[in-house]
Design brief:
Length: about 600
C-alpha cells in the first residue's frame, strides 16, 4: 500500500470514529450546567479509590491530529472524585478564578472548592479546564446527588447553576453491612485503643453569605482509653482524624486537620449526610519522639441527631426562661428530661439557683454534675464546665477550705493539659487570684508560659503570645505586684480577646490602686454579663463578678428571685457605673470600647 492510500485510509478511519463518537454523545448527553458568566460545566465521570484517572482524546492542528491526555489525582486513602470540564469563550482575563461547589445529600450541603486557574487555550479561541473535585463527607454510596455551583464573590443567595449526577458505590460498603457494637478495641504495634462511645456537642446557628451552609453543627468527642506497653501518653499526638459516612474517604485537610492535639482533648466535626447508616471514625496517632504513626478505623453508628435536637430545644427553653426571669419554668423544663441529659439538667438547674442566690442548692447540683465530666480539656466538658462554678459557690457560702480543694484539683488539671481553651485557663487564673493557696508552684507557671510561647512560634498565632502574657500577668499578681500585672495583661482599646478580660483587668487595677480604670473595666464586665445572663458559658463570669465586686443589693438590671429589677445602690461608690450603654469612653487611651 502506497503512502497516499495509507493516509486516505487513516483519514477515513478517523472520520468514522469521530462520527461514531458524535452519535454516541448525542444519545448519551452528559449533564451540563451554565454559569451566569457563560462558563459551561460538563460532568465527565466519578472515580473512587486511591488513583484517579481521566483520559481524553483531543483534536490538534499538528501530527498526530488526535492527542491522548491523561489527568491523574492520587489520594492517600480511598476517596471519591468527580471529574468536570469547564469551557468558556471569553478573554483569559475575564475568566473566573475560583468557584465554590456544594453537593446536596439528604438535605445537607457537602462543600467543595474548585480552583480554575489552569485554563488552557484551545482551537477557535476557546478555553477549558479539567478538574477532579473532592467534597467534605460525600460518600460513594451509589446515590444520585445534585451539584450546585456558586460564585463566592456574588451577593445572591440563589444557585446560579446545578446538575444531577450518579455516584459510584465504594467496595467497602459491600464488606461492612452494619455498625460494630461499642466498646470496640483495636491494637497496634505501639498503642491499643478501646473506644467506648462518643459525647456530642451540638450547635445551631444562622449562616450568612452568598453560599448556603449547614445550620446545624455536631462535634464528636471520643470516649476512649489508650494503653501503652511502655512510655507516656503525653508523647502521643493526634496527627489526623475524621468522622464521616463510610465510603467518603478522608475529609479536606484544611477543614478537619488537627495540629499537635492531645488525645484527651480531641474533637472532630461530623461531616456529610447524617442519614448515612454507617460512619467511619478514622484516627492517626503520632509518636513525637520517634515520628512513628499508628492508625485505627472504627465502623460506628451515625450521631443521634434527633436526640441532640431535643436537647438543644430544652436548653433554648431554659435559656429564654432565665432571660425573662421565670426561674420556676427554667427548672420545670428539666423535670421530665431523658436520663441522657443528666449533665445538662444539673447544669441548668444550678444556673437557676445561682441567679436566685441559692448557693446551697446550686452547690448540690454542681457536685453531681462534676461527677459526669471527664477532663478539663474535652470540648464536651468545656461546654458545661461546672467545677469552677462549684468552687465559686462554695466560696460564696464561706466554705473556703472546700472551695480551695475543688479549685486546687481544677487548676492542677488545667496546668497539665497542653490543649485548653483560653477561657478555661483564665478561669483557673481567676481562682488562683482569689485563693493564692491553690496556685501551682512558680516553676509550673514558667513551664506553662514557655508552652504558650512555643505554640505561638509554631503556629504563628499572636493569640498564643497574648495568652503567655496573661500567664505572666497572673504570676506577677500572685507575687502582689499588681501594677506590673496590669501592665503585662494584654488588652485592646476596641475588642477583648476573652470574655473574662474586662473582669480580670478590673480586679488588677483595683488592687493596683487605679480606681478610674478599675471602674471602667468593671462597668464593661458588668454590662456584658447582664446582657449574656442565661446564656451558656457565662455562669462563671456572673459568679466572679459577685465575688470580686460584692454589693449588698443586686446591681441595676439584674432580676431578684421574685422577678423584680434590682438597683445599683449597693455598689461601692468608686465602682458605681455611669450608664449601661454598649459603648464607653476609655479614660486612659481616649478610645471607644465596644
Amino acid at each position: 500500500m502506497s503512502k497516499r492510500n495509507l493516509l486516505w485510509t487513516l483519514g477515513i478511519v478517523v472520520a468514522i470514529a469521530a462520527m461514531a463518537t458524535a452519535v454516541w454523545m448525542s444519545r448519551n448527553p452528559r449533564p451540563t450546567a451554565t454559569l451566569p458568566d457563560g462558563t459551561r460545566i460538563t460532568f465527565l465521570k466519578a472515580t473512587y479509590g486511591r488513583h484517579h484517572l481521566y483520559t481524553e482524546w483531543r483534536f490538534q492542528w499538528a501530527w498526530p491530529p488526535i492527542q491522548r491526555e491523561v489527568h491523574q489525582i492520587n489520594t492517600p486513602t480511598d476517596a471519591l472524585r468527580l471529574w468536570v470540564r469547564m469551557e468558556n469563550n471569553q478573554p483569559l482575563h475575564f475568566l473566573p478564578m475560583d468557584c465554590t461547589v456544594a453537593v446536596t445529600a439528604d438535605g445537607r450541603f457537602c462543600p467543595g472548592y474548585m480552583d480554575t486557574r489552569g485554563w488552557r487555550r484551545r482551537p477557535w479561541g476557546r478555553f477549558d479546564a479539567i478538574r477532579g473535585l473532592g467534597y467534605e463527607g460525600l460518600a460513594a454510596d451509589g446515590s444520585q446527588v445534585e451539584l450546585r455551583f456558586y460564585d463566592p464573590n456574588s451577593s445572591s443567595n440563589q444557585s446560579p447553576a446545578s446538575l444531577r449526577v450518579r455516584l459510584p458505590k465504594a467496595p467497602v460498603l459491600n464488606l461492612v453491612k452494619q455498625p460494630e457494637p461499642l466498646p470496640a478495641e483495636r491494637s497496634g504495634k505501639l498503642l491499643k485503643v478501646r473506644l467506648n462511645g462518643f459525647r456530642w456537642v451540638y450547635h445551631r446557628w444562622k449562616p450568612a453569605g452568598a453560599v448556603p451552609t449547614n445550620e446545624e453543627v455536631i462535634h464528636a468527642c471520643p470516649d476512649w482509653q489508650l494503653t501503652l506497653p511502655a512510655g507516656s501518653l503525653d508523647e502521643w499526638e493526634v496527627a489526623y482524624i475524621h468522622f464521616a459516612p463510610l465510603g467518603a474517604g478522608p475529609v479536606f485537610p484544611m477543614i478537619n486537620r488537627v495540629f499537635g492535639a492531645s488525645p484527651q482533648s480531641i474533637a472532630m466535626a461530623v461531616v456529610g449526610s447524617w442519614r448515612a447508616p454507617i460512619y467511619s471514625f478514622y484516627v492517626q496517632f503520632l509518636h513525637t519522639p520517634t515520628g512513628k504513626r499508628e492508625s485505627f478505623e472504627f465502623y460506628v453508628s451515625p450521631p443521634p441527631v434527633e436526640q441532640l435536637r431535643q436537647r438543644e430545644q430544652l436548653e433554648a427553653q431554659s435559656r429564654k426562661a432565665l432571660q425573662r426571669g421565670n426561674y420556676a419554668h427554667a427548672v420545670q423544663v428539666w423535670e421530665n428530661a431523658p436520663t441522657e441529659f443528666a449533665l445538662q439538667a444539673r447544669y441548668w438547674r444550678g444556673y437557676v439557683y445561682v441567679l436566685q442566690g441559692d448557693y446551697a442548692r446550686a452547690t448540690e447540683e454542681f457536685q453531681r454534675a462534676a461527677g459526669l465530666l471527664r477532663t478539663v480539656s474535652s470540648q464536651y466538658d468545656q461546654e458545661y464546665e461546672v467545677r469552677p462554678a462549684l468552687a465559686l459557690c462554695l466560696l460564696l457560702m464561706g466554705r473556703r477550705a472546700d472551695a480551695a480543694q475543688v479549685a486546687r484539683d481544677f487548676t492542677a488539671q488545667v496546668a497539665q493539659h497542653r490543649e485548653c481553651l483560653w477561657e478555661i485557663e483564665l478561669l483557673a487564673n481567676a481562682l488562683c487570684l482569689m485563693m493564692p493557696e491553690v496556685a501551682p508552684p512558680p516553676q509550673r507557671v514558667d513551664e506553662r508560659t514557655r508552652a504558650w510561647v512555643q505554640l505561638a512560634r509554631q503556629r504563628r498565632n499572636q493569640a498564643y503570645a497574648e495568652m503567655a502574657q496573661r500567664t505572666r500577668a497572673i504570676q506577677a499578681a500572685l507575687q502582689r505586684d499588681y501594677k506590673r500585672a496590669s501592665r503585662l495583661f494584654p488588652s485592646s482599646p476596641r475588642i477583648y480577646n476573652s470574655d473574662y478580660d474586662p473582669l480580670l483587668l478590673a480586679l488588677l487595677y483595683k488592687q493596683a490602686g487605679n480606681l478610674e480604670l478599675a471602674r471602667f473595666y468593671h462597668d464593661e464586665a458588668r454590662s456584658f454579663l447582664l446582657q449574656q445572663r442565661g446564656n451558656r458559658g457565662y455562669l462563671n463570669g456572673i459568679l466572679l463578678l459577685r465575688i470580686l465586686f460584692p454589693s449588698p443589693a443586686p446591681p441595676s438590671g439584674t432580676l431578684l428571685p421574685d422577678g423584680r429589677a434590682g438597683t445599683q445602690g449597693g455598689l461601692p461608690r468608686q465602682f458605681r457605673p455611669a450608664d449601661d450603654g454598649a459603648l464607653r469612653h476609655h479614660p486612659a487611651r481616649g478610645a471607644t470600647v465596644r
